[in-house]
Design goal:
alpha/beta
C-alpha cells in the first residue's frame, strides 16, 4: 500500500514552500579565462584555475560552505571519440576519473539537453574523462578512449564532480570538442596559459622563435579553438540564466 504523507499548509492550497536553495547561484567550473567569461551571467558564479587541477581543487576547497545550489563544469575539451569534430557538444552522463566514475545528476543533464536540443550529430550524451595532465598525443587519446569509453577529456570536470559529491550538490558538465581525437596538441600548448587562464602570448611567441612551435600548428589550433568557442557561445545563449539548471523543486518533479 502506498503511504500518503499529510499535506503541508503550502501543498494544501496548491503552493510550494519557498526553497532557500533556489536563490543560490549555480557554480560554473572552468579552466580558461574565456570560458569563465562566457559562463558568467544571471544566476551563475564562475570560477577557473587556468587549466591547473591542483589549483582548482584548492580554490574549490576555499568554498566551504559552497554557497551554491549546483555545480556545472563548462568549457572546451579534447576529443576522444574519433567521430567528434571541433564544435561538437558533449553533455556528460558521468565523469571517469583515474580511480572512479562520478555520476552526473540525470535530471539536470536532461534539462540541459532539452535546452540545447536532442542528442544527435553535434550534441552527444556520454561520459567525459577527467585527467590531471593534458593528453597531448593521438596515442594518448586513443589509450584513454579504450580505457574509459569517454567521448572527450578535460582537466576540470573530475575536480568539480568530486566537490559536488562531497557537498551533496547536483553536478552536470557541458564540454565542447576543440582538438579532435586524430589531432595531437602541439607541445607549446602545455605552457600557453597564464595561471589566471589567459593565453600567454609571450610564451607562444617564444616557442615560435625557438622553433619549437610551427606556424601551421598555431593556425590549426586557432581554427579548432574558434569552432569550439563559437559552439560554446551558442550553448551558453541557449542555456540562459543559471546555465539552464532547474530549481530543486522542479528536479524533484514537485
Amino acid at each position: 500500500m502506498t503511504r500518503v504523507e499529510p499535506a503541508s499548509p503550502a501543498r494544501a492550497v496548491g503552493l510550494h514552500a519557498p526553497d532557500p536553495a533556489s536563490s543560490l547561484p549555480v557554480l560554473a567550473v572552468t579552466g580558461l579565462a574565456k570560458e569563465r567569461r562566457l559562463a558568467s551571467g544571471p544566476g551563475v558564479e564562475a570560477v577557473g584555475a587556468g587549466g591547473n587541477p591542483a589549483r582548482l581543487a584548492a580554490l574549490l576547497a576555499s568554498w566551504d560552505p559552497p554557497g551554491c545550489r549546483a555545480i556545472v563544469s563548462i568549457g572546451i575539451a579534447g576529443g576522444l571519440d574519433p567521430n567528434l569534430v571541433p564544435g561538437d557538444v558533449v553533455v556528460a552522463a558521468g565523469i571517469v576519473a583515474a580511480d572512479r566514475r562520478y555520476e552526473a545528476d540525470p535530471a539536470v543533464a536532461a534539462a540541459l539537453l532539452a535546452r540545447l536540443g536532442l542528442p544527435g550529430d553535434t550534441i552527444r550524451s556520454g561520459d567525459l574523462a577527467g585527467v590531471d595532465a593534458a593528453v597531448m598525443s593521438v596515442a594518448g587519446k586513443a589509450e584513454l578512449r579504450a580505457r574509459t569509453r569517454a567521448l572527450a577529456v578535460d582537466m576540470e570536470s573530475h575536480i568539480a564532480a568530486a566537490f559536488a559529491e562531497r557537498h551533496g550538490l547536483p553536478f552536470a558538465a557541458i564540454r565542447v570538442v576543440c582538438d579532435p581525437a586524430h589531432r595531437a596538441l602541439p607541445a607549446f600548448a602545455a605552457q600557453a596559459l597564464k595561471p589566471n587562464g589567459e593565453p600567454d602570448i609571450l610564451a607562444v611567441l617564444s616557442a615560435v622563435a625557438r622553433g619549437s612551435a610551427r606556424i601551421v600548428d598555431l593556425v590549426r589550433l586557432a581554427r579548432d579553438s574558434n569552432a569550439a568557442f563559437a559552439a560554446l557561445s551558442r550553448c551558453r545563449t541557449l542555456l540562459g540564466p543559471s546555465l539552464g539548471v532547474p530549481p530543486h523543486e522542479d528536479r524533484r518533479g514537485a
